[in-house]
Design a protein that fits this description.
Elements: H1 10-85
Length: 86
């Protein structure tokens, strides 16, 4: 009868597999949490980028308006100088 004894214990094997499954589940849960955190950071980064782009457009509009105003004032100054020289 000893020739059929392989030393394999199905219950012990089952417990080992159960432990492996629990470790895999914990790793998957941790990975899911990390992915959620990264997604949240990515979304925040996109919001910041959009806000910076908006601010950049507004600043560019202000620069363009000021540049236009400087040209207008320069033209007025030149015209004033020409009127005073006559």
């Amino acid at each position: 009868m000893d020739e059929f004894n392989t030393g394999w214990d199905p219950y012990e094997e089952l417990l080992q597999h159960r432990g492996n499954i629990q470790q895999c589940a914990m790793a998957i849960n941790h990975g899911t949490e990390v992915m959620k955190e990264l997604a949240s950071k990515y979304n925040h980064q996109q919001e910041v980028i959009q806000q910076l782009q908006f601010n950049n457009r507004k600043l560019q509009q202000m620069v363009d308006a000021l540049r236009h105003e400087v040209v207008q004032q320069g033209t007025k100054l030149e015209m004033f100088k020409m009127q005073n020289n006559q």
